[in-house]
Design a protein that fits this description.
7-stranded mixed beta sheet; 11 strands; mainly beta; 4-stranded antiparallel beta sheet; about 120 residues
Amino acid sequence: VQLQAFGGGLVQPGGSLRVSCAACGPGIMFSIKDMAWYRQAPGKQRELVASISTPGTTNYIDSVKGRFTISRDNAKNTVYLQMNSLKPEDTAVHYCYAEIGTYYSGSYYYYHYWGQGTEVTVSS
């Protein structure tokens, strides 16, 4: 199973951007629990931006509340992060995360998976 991130790019302050991340595993039966987006700005530690549970319960760090929205499409095994009113301090490499269980011999075995990272740059 792999997580593939899409989106990202350069946007002006105040603009919007959406990043998405899909879990794929051809021929593999899997189940996804929590999904999330993290980000890592230059010279800083990776931080959790937003998370969403399977039923849809969400959590955000204070600095993005009211500006970012995390959502997921369970049928497509995809998580999205809609980012509005972007600020220069949102500039970072964004990583998707998911707790994914792969099916084997009657049970699901859960592991942590990370996407490859997509760069978001907010600059005029």
